[in-house]
């Protein structure tokens, strides 16, 4: 990326390669929270961002059926958006299943089935690309510092 003066500038970025093990989830959330706190982002945005990355990581661990490392990349863009990409090399699925917005959970006490809904609710941009047998990439953004919060947070 180039700055206004034509000199290349680096975006604040964090890249993690993490084994698909549920025992890693706490460490992943901690590293991401530290990265976001270092950017001076609001606690609401931090909570949303860590929630989405945590849900995406949990979904990969539960559904991807892979032993390969999960790639998590986070970056801060234009001082207004936190973005993340979570990529696995797992079993994948038909992307059209993820293209439609999920319904809110019907059972508040259910143990599962809320991941996609939570991720979309805490994001201002959310996309899933997946192919059976090739894996899945989730990309999302959370507006911060004057950007619009997710619709679920508008009061």
Explain what this protein looks like in three dimensions:
The protein has 155 residues and is α+β, with helices and mostly antiparallel strands. It has one domain: 2-Layer Sandwich (Heat Shock Protein 90). The protein contains 4 helices and 5 strands, in the order E-H-H-E-E-H-H-E-E. The chain has a 5-stranded antiparallel β-sheet with strand order 1-2-3-5-4, with helices on one face. Strand 2 and strand 3 form a beta hairpin. The longest helix is centred in the middle third of the chain and has 21 residues. The protein is globular and about 40 Å long. The N and C termini lie far apart (36 Å).
Features:
Heat Shock Protein 90; globular; 4 helices; 5 strands; alpha+beta; five-stranded antiparallel beta sheet; 155 residues
**Helix and strand element order:** EHHEEHHEE
Which residues form runs of ≥5 with pLDDT under 50?
A: none
Number of strands: 5
Q: What does the largest sheet look like?
A: 5 strands, antiparallel
What is the overall shape? globular
Residues in helix, %? 25-40%
Residue share in β-strands: 15-25%
Task: Briefly characterize the structure.
The chain has 155 residues and is α+β, with helices and mostly antiparallel strands. The chain has a single domain (13-147), classed as 2-Layer Sandwich (Heat Shock Protein 90). The chain has helices spanning 25-37, 43-63, 96-99, 115-121; strands spanning 13-18, 70-77, 81-88, 125-131, 135-143.
Task: Map the helices and strands.
Layout: E1 13-18, H1 25-37, H2 43-63, E2 70-77, E3 81-88, H3 96-99, H4 115-121, E4 125-131, E5 135-143
Antiparallel strand pairs: 1-2, 2-3, 3-5, 4-5
